[in-house]
Specification:
This protein is of the alpha/beta class. The chain has 3 domains: 33 residues, no CATH class; 131 residues, Aspartate Aminotransferase, domain 1 (Alpha-Beta Complex), CATH 3.90.1150; 255 residues, Aspartate Aminotransferase, domain 2. Helices cover 39% and strands 13% of the residues. It contains 15 helices and 15 strands. The strands form 4 sheets. It has a 7-stranded mixed β-sheet with strand order 2-10-9-8-7-3-6, sandwiched between helices. A 4-stranded antiparallel β-sheet has the order 11-12-15-14, covered by helices on one side. Helix 5 packs antiparallel against helix 12, helix 7 runs parallel beside helix 8 and helix 7 crosses helix 11. The protein is globular, with a radius of gyration of 25 Å.
């Protein structure tokens, strides 16, 4: 009886709209009467509340980039159900499984919750002391202190928390093109005006042009002052990696202007070139003006596990002398209950010698993929950047629309890419390829692209 009633309710719920006056079939009516009454409640008319919408969200004219890519992919699949399998070189989501030693840490963390002697509940919002200490020592070689590390559920979330801390009254600077989160969270926080239709840029954000003409590093001398400078290296989406000299210039600029640099080092483990900094704290003077966000997502295949960290040295202070770390600690203790105990156990395993060796193997695999993609797209007649010390390849379309090229490749090669325009106005005319696909998929994608562009 219960199954029949559920089936009836499911059938009714599947309708796109329920019209109360529409007659039910005789069988359905008799079944409903026989197996308890089913209340037929008409859908309420659409109403609005008296609550005003946050006007800042109205400034965001489009949805977040990566869900939009997924929507277009799904629309194509719905219209072409018999198409060959789609290969994704789009969102930077890892595809290799979590390695054995690191996985054992996650398993241990989970099993401890099932034992009375090892069970743990709420922990420190800033993260477990052992993990903070291991991050400071193993990844920063003592350049930072353990209590300057805030463990979290990922760098993306921490960028939003930093924006919450900085508030609406600051001016932010971003690389152009850049990871969309920096701009979108600035808009949500009320730091910006509207988009200028002529430039596709938000008022009150400083856009730092990064393109082939300046080796993807901005001319800092020509930039207006910004309170907070978001800078990512290795860069998403361009694949560019800042040199030591460039980062020294960035720190010197921030100190001169009285700015704070938020350095996104999420792709640091891909750096293989000797002498290229993996952390902004390798630069003298950075401790007084820099914050660093990082994540295990790309390190260890934790994109679905969620574990990251933010480093705020004690020396970074506001104009009134208040330590920035103090306010971020207030955000974390108020708006976050700490990363999962299970996940932090996995993080500890990541930083064992065996775990670090596994991470290096993962990085090598994806870097090999990047070489395959870069050589492949260059064989199609395009100029490409990145792919060295970085999992991203940035393809120059020589003035062609990036969304048009995205559609062309999806519809004719069944390969998903990312249009550069989604990373800001400076990304138009470029296409990003991600090396996080399986190696055989990267090779097949190159074959399809060569076939598409052979003419």
């Amino acid at each position: 009886m219960r199954a029949t009633a559920i089936a009836l309710l499911a059938a009714l719920g599947a309708a796109s709209a329920f019209v109360p006056s529409a007659p039910l079939s005789t069988g359905a009516v008799s079944t409903a009467r026989k197996h308890h009454a089913v209340n037929m409640v008409a859908a309420e008319p659409a109403v609005t509340t008296a609550v005003k919408r946050n006007a800042n969200f109205g400034k965001l004219s489009a949805g977040y980039l990566f869900p939009e890519i997924g929507r277009r992919r799904n629309a194509y699949l719905a219209a072409n159900p018999d198409t060959r399998p789609i290969i994704s070189l789009g969102i930077g989501d890892t595809t290799l499984p979590i390695p054995e030693h690191i996985l054992s840490g996650l398993q241990k963390g989970a099993s401890q919750l099932g034992n009375k002697e090892t069970y743990s509940g709420y922990g420190a919002e800033q993260g477990q002391g052992a993990l903070r200490e291991k991050i400071a020592n193993k990844l920063y070689n003592g350049l930072i202190k353990p209590d300057e590390v805030f463990v979290s559920d990922g760098a993306k979330c921490d960028i939003a928390r930093l924006q919450m801390m900085f508030g609406a009254g600051v001016v932010s600077a971003v690389q152009d093109p850049s990871y969309p989160v920096y701009v979108d969270t600035s808009v949500m926080m009320g730091q910006t005006g509207l988009v200028d239709p002529a430039t596709s840029q938000f008022d009150n954000i400083v856009y730092m042009p990064c393109n082939p003409t300046n080796d993807f590093f901005p001319d800092l001398s020509k930039l207006p002052r910004a309170d907070v400078i978001y800078f990512c290296s290795p860069n998403n989406p361009t694949g560019a990696v800042a040199t030591r000299a460039q980062l020294e210039a960035l720190v010197a600029h921030a100190k001169k202007q009285g700015s704070i640099v938020v350095f996104d080092a999420a792709y640091a483990p891909f750096i293989r070139t000797p002498g290229v900094p993996k952390s902004i704290f390798e630069i003298e003077g950075a401790r007084s003006c820099c914050i660093e966000v990082n994540s295990f997502s790309k390190y260890a295949g934790f994109t679905g596990v969620r574990l990251g960290w933010t480093v705020i040295p004690d020396d970074v202070k506001y104009a009134d002398g208040t330590p920035v770390r103090q306010d971020f600690n207030r955000v974390m203790t108020t708006a976050f209950n700490g990363a999962s105990n299970i996940v932090q156990a996995g993080g500890l395993a990541c930083l064992d010698d065996a775990g670090l060796a596994e991470i290096n193997n993962l990085m090598d695999y994806y870097l090999d993929n990047a070489v395959i993609l870069k050589k492949g797209i260059e064989s199609c007649g395009f100029k490409a950047y990145g792919g060295l010390d970085s999992p991203y390849v940035f393809v120059d379309l020589e003035g062609k629309s990036s969304w048009d090229m995205f559609s062309n490749i999806l519809e004719n090669a069944q390969v998903v890419t990312i249009p550069g325009a989604g990373f800001g106005p400076g990304g138009e005319g470029f296409l990003r390829l991600s090396a996080f696909a399986p190696k055989e998929s990267c090779k097949e994608a190159v074959s399809r692209l060569q076939e598409l562009f052979k003419a």
